[in-house]
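Consider the tokenized backbone below.
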């Protein structure tokens, strides 16, 4: 009876360890409290505002990816280096910055580049 109990405890310990290791492998490579979303960055930047010659990203977010409409993202994406002529699919984290207003209220951080496709 004692051997069966030891064997059961040993198998339970092995199972618990393997589950813990599997869970660690499944954890995403990012951390933080912000919302994580997928965005598509168009191959060409656009003017942020009609009369301002500052360039911004033209993006589609989440369910709008693949649709006809694009929106202007006035914030930079920390950790992302844009190369003109390539469309990117990215995973980004959006954090709310306390004490900031307007477009500065949100901070975009690159989590992962899913794809980088050269424009035809």
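A designed sequence for it:
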């Amino acid at each position: 009876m004692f051997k069966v109990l030891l064997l059961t405890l040993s198998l339970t310990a092995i199972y618990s360890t393997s589950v813990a290791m599997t869970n660690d492998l499944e954890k995403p490579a990012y951390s933080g409290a912000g919302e994580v979303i997928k965005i598509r960055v168009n191959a060409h930047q656009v003017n942020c505002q009609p009369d301002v010659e500052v360039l911004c990203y033209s993006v589609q977010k989440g369910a709008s990816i693949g649709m006809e409409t694009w929106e202007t993202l006035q914030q930079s994406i920390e950790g992302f280096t844009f190369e003109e002529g390539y469309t990117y699919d990215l995973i980004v984290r959006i954090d709310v910055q306390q004490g900031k207003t307007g477009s500065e209220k949100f901070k975009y951080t690159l989590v992962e580049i899913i794809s980088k496709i050269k424009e035809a």
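The first strand starts at residue 35 and ends at 41.
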